[in-house]
Amino acid sequence: MPRPLIVLVLLLLAPAALAAESREAIKLRDAADVLTRIMSIPEQQIPPALLSDAQGIAVIPGVIKAGFFVGGRFGRGVMSVRTEGGGFSAPVFITLTAGSLGYQFGAQSTDVILVFKSPRSIEAIRRGKFTLGADAAVAAGPVGRSAAAATDIELKAEIYSYSRSRGLFAGVALEGAAIQVDIAANNAFYGESVDTDALFKGQTGGTPEEAGKFSTLLGRYAPRGN
């Protein structure tokens, strides 16, 4: 086959190959990449002591913060919860939204990670819309391998929040941000017969490859504590 014809065939097939990978699969891969990059730098990683006690972990890559006088944040990500065996469930797709008032202009993309210490918060998310700071105390999380995981002993936060922007990783205050299960994304990825409860309990009837990789990655970075 002549070389120009081969190039033409490849160009025609490229869109089909890209379409074969769903938006949800790409989101899972992005979330895994965010977690891997953060945990690869000891000075910036989430403290292992905090992760070992985590009841759930959410990763929301590319949260967009934008505004013109009235600003807001929006992002789509994934969340897995601790299973009885000590590993992590199949990831559930979620959205994060927040609004703010005041003079502001411009846009910024930020990766967000939430570490849940209490199953109560996870149950509230499962039931419906959940607001950080209102439905459960949230605090900027400590960073670094040797950092203490209880920097807010008086507040006893149920959730620790982190952000990564322009290569910098640090705890971030996210009071007022709302988390909600993205039912449409879950249906598109797992099928309409699988609901949130089934995903959290591992009753999916088979886990897609990208979902399995993400759960395994969480298990590696956040093994259950003693």
Explained architecture:
- By secondary structure, this protein is α+β, with helices and mostly antiparallel strands.
- The chain has one domain (22-221).
- Helices cover 34% and strands 31% of the residues.
- It has seven helices and seven strands.
- It has helices at 3-20, 23-39, 48-52, 119-127, 183-190, 196-201, 209-221; strands at 56-81, 92-116, 130-131, 138-140, 159-165, 168-171, 178-181.
- Strands 1, 2, 3, 4, 5, 6 and 7 form a seven-stranded mixed β-sheet that branches.
- Strand 5 (159-165) and strand 6 form a beta hairpin.
- The longest helix is centred in the N-terminal third of the chain and has 18 residues, at 3-20.
- The chain is globular and about 40 Å long.
- Residues 4-19 and 101-105 have low confidence and may be disordered.
